[in-house]
Predict the 3D structure of the following.
Amino acid sequence: MDMAIELKNVDLWRRSIDAIASFISEGNFRFNEKGISFKAVDPSQIVLVDYIIDKSAFEKFDIEPTYIGIDLVELNKIMQRTLPNDKLTMEVSDSELSLKLEGDMVRSFKLPLIEVSEEDINIPQPKFDARVEIAGKIIKEALKDASLFGSSVVLRIKGSQFTIEARGSQGTLKSQTKEAQKVVVKSATEVVSKYSLNFLMNIVKSADPEAKVALELKSDAPMKVSYSIGQAQIQYHLAPMIL
């Protein structure tokens, strides 16, 4: 098994790996004629990550359908060492993943492939009652405000109003969005749900400031959060906390 992938936009892969490695320490990447995909649940069973990048993002995509187990913590460390003008070449053999970064210097890294047990992951398909489309920078700032006081956050949607609430012994926060181009709220009924603030901050951290982050919610049910990283799509399903 020998195959090679080339990518000039190394930042796309760096941000993608960081977005996945925030929750998953090891997992299987699947390669096929459409591109590369990844699906896994974090060890605490709180968040499911579903990622796909189209093969059109790559300058070269010479690959046979296969999957490889990778230590994402180590891969993320390598990707954080990339420089903006680096070109990335990845080659897969039967035993290792080779990464070559070509910029002002040529740097080569090799990671051994690992055995990762395949779980049958069922992606929840609930009928959501509300959808919020919000710019990445707005949701990130709102969650930073919430982190002043709480370790959890209550999301409340009523009509076209989206409210983020946090409370702790030091104080409380109530943040409401205004109708604007950067925030679109649609709801069939009032929705109230509580989530881990730390998990939610990590989920949105890789979103571009101007990127559209979609939140799909139902009261006391897992929330689906999705956005694009260049030509890649990432979805998270985040379990609720008890209100």
